Amino acid sequence: MLAMAGDGTDAAFVDEVEPTVTISEYMDGIEAEELEADLVLGGDDGNECTYGAGYLKRQAVFSCLTCVPDGVAGVCTACCLACHDGHEVVELWTKRNFRCDCGNSKFGGHLCKLSPEKDPENPANSYNQNFKGSYCTCSRPYPDPEAKEQVEMIQCCICEDWFHEDHIGLDSLEKIPRDEEGEPLYEEFICHQCSPVCYFLKLYPDTIWASSKQSSASEAVTADSNGMEGGSSGHADTEKNENGAPVDRQSIENTSVEENCTKDIAASDKSILGDNSGGNCKIGVDINTTSADSEKTMPFFMSKGWRETLCKCGTCTNFYAQRGIAHLTDKEDSIEEYEKIAKQKREKKLEQQEGAEANFINSLNHVQKIEILSGINDMKNEFQSFMESFDPSKPVTSDDVKSIFENLARKKQRLS
Ligand SMILES: [Zn+2]
Ligand SMILES: [Zn+2]
Ligand SMILES: [Zn+2]
Ligand SMILES: [Zn+2]
Ligand SMILES: [Zn+2]
Ligand SMILES: [Zn+2]
């Protein structure tokens, strides 16, 4: 990360020395990295092998190519840290329905340090090409050393492989529902290889499909109704044209009327499509009679909450199980739910940390308390004088940080 300093001369200077960041950027960076890590790990603190908990609905999984070069094994977070330190490890983000393989028959005698008692294999585990470090229909590694720039990939919620947007069988990337900033407007993606399995989704109302057209129109309508953006002047009209699509007020109005109609239909759909577990089938026709068109298969982009509308009648449930997609009706399976639980665990952890610090201070005797508090005070003073001697807009180098701690150490030596 390179800090942009106030003026051109500073920036040039920064460029030549070393990559630097300002203190607030540094702290924000740590926050963001911690949050990101906590989300992937799902609040797992990574101390214990998850093998004992069986096949977890979702967990972070790693593949060690040093131990299992053909990528037919996966290990949990704790094992990745404790048993495969320094090995060539592929980070697979999260996988569903997986049980830790560390040290089992696939590891050729390399024992697990945390949970050595394991069955030779976990028969329900499935291993796609990601375990070998390959992704997408093009089977390239990520990051790709031969690519000019690393583009983000999207994960299919059925096969859990990752795809380049231009490798999902679309003739135009415009067909991917995105807002004007290019942010995805879909909650989940089903790749063109998995969409035939999910062809029955075509029997559901349009509201389960993500659509860029409707959403951008509703945004424009919201902007209008609060009256703040552009008002009745032509300004807003030109502003909406940033993505190159010709959007005029007339067409927005037309779309919003259409959208309202869709909303009404959606509301009545919802009442028909309420929870029906065990009851009548929501879709009215036998789900087993649905089959994909013989024409070229397309990827599916699903709207927010689409899984909740899926029918849970006996026939449909059997169908999902036969096709290996029963996870779709399990709320806990979605990445969204996984991250929600991870966030809750993270908040609890942070609260506990704060509590532990307070308890620690309270358990000390008076002299110890004074010493710690004066230590904190020294740190504060050192930091304060550093900040005063320093232009806060300027980047901080690692040498600067080192010098704060060296000054503190010197003070400690003087005192003792
Ligand atoms: Zn493990
Ligand atoms: Zn290893
Ligand atoms: Zn292990
Ligand atoms: Zn690709
Ligand atoms: Zn797929
Ligand atoms: Zn049904």
UniProtKB/TrEMBL annotation:
Disordered: annotated segments: 220-260
GO terms for MF: ubiquitin protein ligase activity; zinc ion binding
Alphabetized Gene3D superfamilies for the sequence: Zinc/RING finger domain, C3HC4 (zinc finger)
Record CDD domains: PHD_UBR7, UBR-box_UBR7
Domain of life of the source: Eukaryota
Residues in UBR-type zinc fingers: 47-117
Pfam family, one: zf-UBR
Domain UBR-type: 47-117
Protein name listed in UniProt: UBR-type domain-containing protein
Organism of derivation: Aegilops tauschii subsp. strangulata
Top-level taxonomy: Eukaryota, Viridiplantae, Streptophyta, Embryophyta, Tracheophyta
